[in-house]
Amino acid sequence: MSNTTEQEVFWQGDFGDEYSDRNRGDKWVASNAAFFSKVLYRTHGIDTVLELGANIGLNLMAIKQLLPDAKLSAVEINERAAAELASNVPGIDLHLKSILEFEPTMSWDLVFTKGVLIHINPEKLPDVYKLMYECSNRYLFVSEYYNPQPVEISYRGHAGKLFKRDFAGELLDAFPSLDLVD
After folding, report:
1. What is the largest CA-CA distance in the chain?
2. pTM score, two decimals?
3. pLDDT at 19 over 70
4. DSSP track, 51-110
5. Nearest to residue 51, comparing CAs of 75, 22, 77?
6. For residues 3 and 96, what is the distance between their CA atoms, to the nearest angstrom?
7. Cβ neighbours of residue 23 closer than 8 Å, sequence gap 6 or more
8. For 129, how many CA atoms within 13 A lie in the half-sphere containing its CB?
9. Is the CB of residue 109 less than 8 Å from the CB of residue 45?
10. Is 165 helix (H, G, I), strand (E, B) or coil?
C-alpha cells in the first residue's frame, strides 16, 4: 500500500491503532444506532451501503441493526482496525486501503463518511468528493466537523491532522445535480 499523504501514514500506524482503542464498545454502537435511525428516516430503498474510513465498524454495526438485510461495504486504511471490523461485521465487503487508492467496481445506495473527511489532506478532498459522488447511486451522507471557512485545528497535539470546513457545501457546489435532503 503506497502512502500519498502524511495523514494516511498517521492513521495507518500507531495513532490509528490508539484511536481504535479509545473508541469502542456497546455505548458507541447504541449512540450510532440512535443517530443513524434519524439519518435513515429521511431515506428509502437502501440495500447497499459503503462507509469510507470505517475503522472497527461501529457505524456499520449500528446500520446493520437498522437495515439487517443491507449489503455493507467499507474502506479502511488501518490494518488492525480492518481486522477488527471484519470480525465485528461478518460478511462485510472490506477494502484494506486508502480512500485515495480505492477503485470501486460497483455503486452503492448510500455512501458516507463520519469523522473522516476532517482528517483528509485538504488538497485531496476534491478526489474524495469525486469518489463519493461516483460511488453513490442514491445518497451521499457526511457527518463531519463544520466551519464556514476552512480551518486547521490541532488534534491531540498534532498539526496537519484535523481540518474543519463546509464539506457538504463543497460537495453540493462540486456536483450541482445533488439535492440536499437534510
Report:
1. 42
2. 0.93
3. yes
4. EES-TTSHHHHHHHHHSTT-EEEEEE--HHHHHHHHHHSTT-EEEES-GGG---SS-EEE
5. 75
6. 13
7. 55, 56, 58
8. 19
9. yes
10. coil
